Amino acid sequence: MNALDYFNARLQATLSPMDYLMSSKKNPETYFLIDVRNGPEKLRSIIIKGSTVIPQQELHTRLDEIPMDKEIIVYCWDVWCNTAAKVAKHLLEKGYTVKELTGGIAAWQEMNFPVSNTLEENNIEGDCGC
């Protein structure tokens, strides 16, 4: 693969946080954003506003929640995490249109883009879940 092929493939498979934010504001019905991070809920409590949380480990039992008629955008922790890439590959094999959000939640937060706190939204306090 030469450099041009590499960059073309990369642009087809990824979407930057800024590009996603602008595109989703113009055409919100086009996209379905999924947080695919694994790990303790407390560590995953900050999510990109408007995303659906489907951890990678639950994906096989929750495919029915993912619309086939939208462009699926998946994200994980950071550039060093490949969970979103694994999920994207799996969804592509199932016939979905998928891109990975570059930089994950870390890049999103670094840019001060809108986030939600799932623990606050679900009125979960402390470690007991009460």
TrEMBL record:
Q: Which Gene3D superfamilies match?
A: Rhodanese-like domain
**Record InterPro entries:** GlpE_sulfurtransferase, Rhodanese-like_dom, Rhodanese-like_dom_sf
In this chain the Rhodanese domain maps to: 27-117
Which Pfam families would you find in this protein's record? Rhodanese (PF00581)
> CDD domains attached here?
RHOD
SUPFAM superfamilies named in the record: Rhodanese/Cell cycle control phosphatase
Task: Specify the domain of life of the species encoding this protein.
Answer: Bacteria
Which protein are we looking at? Answer: ArsR family transcriptional regulator
| Origin organism lineage | Bacteria, Bacillati, Bacillota, Bacilli, Bacillales
